[in-house]
Amino acid sequence: CPSSSGKPNHADILLVNLQYVSEVEIINDRTETPPPLASLNVSKLANKARTEKEEKMSQAYAISAGVSLEGQQLFQTIHKTIKDCKWQEKNIVVMEEVVIAPPPPWVLFLPSAPLSLPLSLPLSLQVEKHFRDVESQKVLQRSQAQQTQKDTSLSS
After folding, report:
1. Which of 8, 87, 97 is nearest to 54 (CA)?
2. Strand partners, 20
3. Number of neighbouring beta carbons within 10 Å of residue 116
4. Alpha helices in 82-116 (DSSP H)
5. Among 136, 134, 120, which Cα is nearest to 70's?
6. What DSSP state is assigned to residue 16?
7. Of 37, 90, 116, 136, which one's alpha carbon is 20 to 30 angstroms from that of 152?
8. For the chain, what are the domain ranges?
9. Read out DSSP for 22-42?
10. Averaged over 16-44, what is the pLDDT?
11. Rounded CA gap, 132 and 31, in Å?
């Protein structure tokens, strides 16, 4: 049957857990042959697999180098918008231009190259926003934990 989205080469798929099926009834057999499956773009899949492998290796490198969880999260935040970033020991290097170094607060080091200046402001804003978001998440978690503790003590 055609996709509910109406897109060609798409189909709706319904997964059924067969552990909960007690009986199957065939209403009618299909008489025509199904349409051929869409061809896969093998090079696109290979590129995706290679990229995923590189990202996992980068993450493994960071862990083995002793990078803090905070640093790993910062790297992932930056990597979402700027793919050209990598680890250099415990430092994050962005576009071969800007180095972000630990310990907290993480510091941006700019080389004298003028190309890095347009990159520095948005990157520093992104780093600041990341740490504000992390801090607000910690505050929210603490407040939820305190509320749970209050609720538990009141119900006792």
Report:
1. 87
2. none
3. 19
4. none
5. 134
6. -
7. 136
8. 43-146
9. ----------SPPPPPPPP-H
10. 88
11. 61
pLDDT digits (tens, 9 = 90+) for 70-122: 888 889 888 888 888 889 888 888 888 888 888 767 676 666 555 556 667 77
At 35-82, the pLDDT tens digits run 888 888 999 999 999 989 988 898 898 888 888 888 888 898 888 888
**Residues 126, 119: contact at Cβ < 8 Å?**
no
List, for residues 134-151, the tens digit of each pLDDT value: 888 888 888 888 888 877
CA 61 to chain centre: 17
For residues 117 and 110, the answer to whether their CB atoms sit within 8 Å is yes
- Mean pLDDT, residues 1-21 taken together: 84
Query: How high is the pLDDT of residue 31?
Result: 83
Q: Report, in this order, helix, strand and coil percent for the chain, each rounded to 5.
A: 50, 10, 40
Q: How far apart are CA 120 and CA 114, in angstroms?
A: 10
The size of the chain, in residues, is 156
Q: Which amino acid is at 23?
A: E
Residue 156 pLDDT more than 70?
no
Burial of residue 9 (CB within 10 Å: 0-12, 13-18, 19+) is: exposed
